[in-house]
Specification:
The structure holds two protein chains of two kinds.
Chain A lengths: L2 H41 L3 H27 L7 H18 L3 H23 L4 H21 L1 H4 L22 H24 L1 H11 L1 H6 L4 H27 L9 H14 L6 H19 L3 H16 L3 H16 L3
Chain B lengths: L7 H8 L2 H32 L6 H19 L2 H22 L9 H23 L17 E3 L2 E3 L1 H23 L1 H11 L1 H6 L4 H23 L9 H16 L4 H21 L4 H15 L11
Antiparallel strand pairs in B: 1-2
The chains are: A mainly alpha, B mainly alpha.
């Protein structure tokens, strides 16, 4: 063993142990978070609060999956909302037309999303930066137009109406509000945990390397195109999950779910919460939904208020809230260590 | 299961009738020309400032509302056009100097966010000032004359004016940019703004000027569209998306590309509405996908900028 290899072996071991610890820590945090969320109905009978958490689950899954692309891989997708809409529509259509159990429809929707995302991604991830953004936007609008014009199948601009049947499975009755709430929380926590695992895996670090220097990653023997395509499909799956939660919640699917504004909101949520921390998009989701709900209650001109808040973040903080807090803490720690 | 509604007979019928051909082509041309005026500003701003102005549609909207108000106050169509263009140019200058200039060199997402904020704010400002309902400027009396008949097709005279004004703007812009001193400075700034600044030219002024020019052109498009379209808060949005498609197809930063892209999209829209009545928009996006996949920098874009 050369000295170099010996040195590497020494440094590698504690790191691996640390990774295991981190993983257990993540699982513990997820379990605690789920326990807290799931016990919420015991303390409050507020339907509005539970509804709020369900919406946070749907948007949170979507926004965090977008961060896998934007924050971790540097792929600024403007069309990520298409998978949110796709998830809602395929789930709704499968449940309405085929009347299969919910888990079957869930898995089938994920499969459909994976196939479509692989096809679209194969075309998109070849392009760089602003062109990637525009092609994803174009695909999003293509799917939106298809939904609007294929009225006999998708219900056109009226959306999927008549409700989505929600037969009980394994004792879970999603027509029951509390059951739906618990299921949404479970999906959110599981989804976040899975995305966290992806982000912290060697593959996740490959993505960061591609973001920072794709050419160097390619020289190191990484198939950049394949890695980008993989994360594109993975992110699409979680966005589709978010769409399914939304479809279950509103018991339908509407063309707005596939409209580009969903993608715009996703980007906005990411910027609001911050893209450099894993939970940034989740914080952003809660912030945006809170902001939307309170502002619409007080004024009909919520665009002005929302716009000013965005300006405050963009021109004032110049970063997302969680990024700002994280920076502030690291500054304070550095100052404390006398650096 | 019925597939996408397609009416190829209507399309074929139109292509074989000269009257229908003329009517559809003119309507395609006016869509294209309006789009060109918006898109060329977008492409100029991108070329020089390297910023994707997501709030560009708002200038189109303001142009239309300014023109309507000026027309109602003065009754003069020419003044209405001037108000639309000059008002939005001023707005563009202020917007660039006060807000956009703070995010140069920042993350692209940050720039988009500032623009997104203004899309929301501007739409609500219009709602505050002019109200949320649909408004109409009405056709000026000078153009309320018999339509022209060209090869059996009906062409309102206002359409000809609209196409003429847009074409004139395109020519002036093209010649101005390639021949005049200011045009050369602008092109130099697009190429290497640091060097231009080092040569003692105030690049802040150039940036503001280009933004004002782009905003003014979009405002002019809005003013020209005001007599033939209904005015509503948020009207800038579909125009914005379409002019994005135009600039992307033509190539970001290319003026010729914007013209060709705008005309192509205009014709696709007018003829597509016959053959694929409900999928006209989809047709545009499909076309954009095809262009981008075969030539990612757009038809007239520079390779690997």
């Amino acid at each position: 063993m050369t000295e170099l290899e010996a040195g590497r072996a020494r440094t590698l071991l504690p790191v691996r142990g640390g990774a295991m610890l981190l993983r257990y820590r993540d699982v513990m945090i997820a379990l605690i978070a789920f326990a807290v969320l799931a016990s919420l109905p015991l303390f409050t009978g507020s339907k509005a609060l539970l509804d709020f958490v369900i919406r946070c689950s749907a948007y949170g899954l979507f926004a965090t999956s977008l961060n896998l692309l934007v924050g971790y891989t540097g792929l600024t997708s403007f069309g990520h909302g298409m998978f949110f809409g796709l998830g809602a529509y395929s789930f709704g259509l499968i449940m309405q037309k085929l009347s299969v159990p919910i888990p079957v429809a869930f898995v089938a929707t994920l499969a459909i999303t994976a196939v479509i995302a692989a096809g679209i991604g194969a075309i998109c991830v070849r392009l760089k930066e602003i062109y990637f953004a525009f092609v994803t936007l174009a695909f999003q609008m293509l799917i939106h137009s298809t939904i609007l014009s294929w009225a006999s199948f998708t219900g056109g601009d009226q959306g999927l109406r008549g409700g989505i049947p929600r037969p009980a499975f394994f004792g879970v009755d999603l027509a029951n509000h509390v059951h739906l709430y618990i299921a949404s929380c479970a999906l959110l926590v599981l989804g976040l945990l899975a995305m966290r695992q992806i982000a912290q895996s060697p593959f996740g670090y490959t993505l960061r390397m591609i973001r920072d220097n794709a050419a160097r990653a390619s020289f190191l023997g990484i198939d950049v195109w394949r890695a980008k395509l993989t994360v594109f499909v993975l992110a699409a799956l979680f966005a589709s999950m978010g769409g399914m939660v939304m479809a279950l919640f509103v018991s339908g699917a509407y063309p707005e779910f596939a409209y580009w504004t969903i993608s715009g909101e996703g980007i906005f949520i990411n910027m609001l919460g911050g893209v450099s921390t894993f939970l940034g998009p989740m914080v952003g989701t809660v912030l945006l939904l809170l902001l939307n709900d309170t502002v619409t209650r007080f004024t009909e001109y919520h665009g002005i208020v929302l716009g000013v808040v965005i300006l405050f973040f963009a021109l004032g903080l110049r970063k997302g809230l969680l990024d700002f807090v994280a920076d502030w803490f690291s500054h304070r720690r550095d100052a404390g260590e006398g650096r | 299961m019925e597939v996408l509604p397609v009416d190829l007979d209507a399309l074929a019928g139109c292509l074989s009738s000269s009257a229908c051909l003329v009517t559809q082509t003119t309507s395609g041309l006016i869509i294209g020309m309006l789009l060109f005026l918006v898109a060329v500003g977008l492409t100029l701003i991108f070329g020089v400032l390297k910023i994707v102005n997501f709030s560009h549609g708002a200038f189109y909207m303001f142009g239309a509302y300014f023109a309507m108000t000026a027309y109602q106050l003065t009754g003069s169509f020419a003044l209405a056009m001037l108000a639309g263009a000059a008002g939005t140019a001023t707005l563009g200058l202020i917007f660039e100097r006060v807000f956009m200039s703070r995010v140069y060199g920042a993350d692209v997402l940050m720039q988009l966010l500032v623009c997104y904020a203004f899309v929301l704010i501007f739409d609500d400002v219009v709602r505050l000032i002019w109200g949320p309902e649909f408004k109409s400027m009405g056709m000026p009396a000078a153009f309320q004359v018999m339509p022209l008949f060209i090869a059996g097709g009906v062409v309102p005279p206002y359409y000809l004016l609209l196409i003429g004004v847009a074409l004139a703007a395109a020519i002036v812009l093209g010649i101005g940019l390639s021949r005049s001193r200011i045009g050369k400075v602008i092109r130099a700034a697009a190429h290497n703004s640091g060097m231009v600044s080092a040569l003692g030219i105030n690049t802040g002024l150039i940036y503001g000027g280009v933004f004002a020019l782009g905003g003014g052109l979009a405002g002019l498009a809005g003013a020209l569209a005001a007599p033939v379209r209904s005015l509503t808060p948020g009207m800038g949005f579909s125009v914005l998306i379409e002019s994005f498609i135009v600039t992307v197809i033509g190539g970001m930063g290319s003026i010729v590309g914007a013209l060709v892209g705008a005309l192509l999209i205009g014709l696709i829209r007018s003829f597509g509405s016959l053959g694929f009545p409900l999928f006209t928009e989809g047709l545009m996006y499909l076309f954009m996908v095809i262009v981008l996949v075969s030539k990612p920098t757009g038809l007239f874009g520079k390779e690997a900028a």
